Amino acid sequence: MIEWLFVPAAYFIGSISSAIIICKLMGLPDPREQGSGNPGATNVMRIGGKKAAAMTLLGDLLKGLLPVYLAKELGVSVELIAITGVAAFLGHLYPVFFKFAGGKGVATSIGVLLGFSWVLGAAFVGTWLLIYKVGKISSLSALFASILSPIYAWYIVGDLYLTGAAVFMMLLLLWRHRSNIQRLIKGEE
Fold this sequence. Notes:
This protein is mainly α. It has one domain (2-186). Helix content is 74%, strand content 0%. Helix 6 packs antiparallel against helix 7. The mean pLDDT is 93.
């Protein structure tokens, strides 16, 4: 029963905002009050440059990866691994430490998917990079990769729980990107 502690632990780890911490450490403005107002790597890049964005991206990715990786290493059930990944992802989107106002979840979802399978995470990143190379729009790249991630999960991992977690994260990523989707439709993104 102690293995169920992975779920709240993953949520609390996910609730740590890499963007806010990196910006504070680098003397940058709070990302929630600058640019798009989103505490994520893309907005940190706007206000602080590539180094701050890369550090934010790595931090957000690791908070998705580490809880899942640790759960796998300790041999918990696949069901619990999937729930642990979703908990870390939800922590990023709705962080308890920041009044439940978090980022959009792309980097953290990549970390979770990498924890499920490095091939699955690489498929997401490869799709993101390909779409970005063609369209040069970060949100469009994230949306395409997110939509394809459940299909990748099913074919790469072939597990119902892990695929279900990928579906859940994809749906929340679409929801969190709804303003981006509206701007893409209008040609304003």
